[in-house]
Amino acid sequence: MEAIKLVRQSLFHPFDFFYDIQFEKRAKLINAVAIMAFACVARIVSLMLSGFAFRTREAVDVSVPIEILWIVIPWVTWAIANWAVSTIIDGEGKFKDILISSSYVYLPYIVLIIPVSLLSNLLTLKEISIYGGIYYFMYGWMAVMLFLQVMIIHDFEFGKTVGIILLSILGMIIMWLIIVMIYGLVNQAIVFVVNILKEIRYRS
């Protein structure tokens, strides 16, 4: 019941909710993990239920691990980047608070993405404005919650909040580039070693 109450409060009273996370310590890490699990399931299900005209790929082409990463990586890298930037700019939020509160930003996505996907089965391409409008509303709702999360968790004013969000996004992009570079280097190293082993086996 407490978890449901927190979800309802975060959706409809985000200001009070994020205040409670920062100063009342109400939210728990297990709730954040559960929310992210629901977000991953919602993404996968929505891709499979989307109407034919609105599909970006076929259901058989959906890779569950990749779709999970599309949800989890932004969450984790945002928490790391925001914590790193806020530490330099004297933010008050701890990493645990940022990680937990960031997960609740996904609640509008969880609530709306599957109904939107189901609705797409009833719409035609001429009615794409309805489909897109709901999408914009969903992401707008998430953006507002993210803004309030940063402002309240770190006790910043409006201008400083905008600045730390932009710097956090920049930090996320840098982390993603580093991850891609490391992945590429590791992959090349593995291919190189495998080719050498194959050559040794062929010559022996």
Automatic annotation (TrEMBL):
Q: Which UniProt keywords apply?
A: Membrane, Transmembrane, Transmembrane helix
UniProt domain Yip1: residue ranges: 9-178
Topology versus the membrane: Multi-pass membrane protein
Q: Where is the chain membrane-spanning? A: 29-54, 66-85, 105-123, 135-152, 164-197
Q: Where in the cell is it found?
A: Membrane
Q: Which InterPro entries match?
A: Yip1_dom (IPR006977)
Major subcellular location class: membrane
> Mind telling me what this protein is named?
YIP1 family protein
What organism does the UniProt record list as the source?
A: Paenibacillus terricola
